Amino acid sequence: MAAVFAMQGIGILLAASIAVIIMLIFRSSIEHDPLMLDYVWRLIVGFGCVPACIALYYRLKIPESPRYTADVELNIHKAINHTQQVINKENIPIEEKSVGKIVKPNTWKDFREYFFGRWKNFKILFGASICWFLLDIAFYGLTLNQSMVLDIVTPHKNSTNVYDTMWNSVKGNLIIALLGTVPG
After folding, report:
1. Which of 56, 94, 101, 115 has its Cα between 20 and 30 A from that of 4?
2. Which contacts qualify for 103-108: CB closer than 8 Å, 24 or more apart?
3. Which of 118-152 are b and which e, b meaning 16 or more Cβ less than 10 Å from the residue's Cβ?
4. Residue 66: how many CB atoms within 10 A of its CB?
5. 128-165 pLDDT tens trace
């Protein structure tokens, strides 16, 4: 989870860099026909699918955790095999006597009683969710309207050229990504 959030800034920087590169590649096409911007934004969004596909591939390649295999799939033998593969890096046959009792899977009722039924747990969960919600409002509210903010902060001559307008927006997004979102 920490790695995902640590890479957010790198992802934003990479997206802004790809937008700059694609805008440079399509410059003459956009100046000749502004409708070429349709292809530009489709390419930029399409490049955003590449990391997701790579992550999906690797997620499908890793085995489920032994806890999930035992509790949800109810396959104790497979769970023990996964555990032994991780610990010993080899597949050891499992004897019937090594299998313990089957653990009852957790239910929504258990979740409600434990997390929401106890004040100690509820206040932590509620506080974390409110903080996250407020952070999302601030973060996404600013980044979704970033091009409008850039127009206000950096006034430039009223250009009728579509490419210049988009280029200023893309360039400003790259500068903000460099200055504000990259960790370190």
Report:
1. 115
2. 103/70, 103/71, 105/71, 105/72, 105/74, 106/71
3. eeeeeeeeeeeeeeeeeeeeeeeeebeeeeeebee
4. 19
5. 999 989 988 887 777 777 777 777 777 666 666 888 88
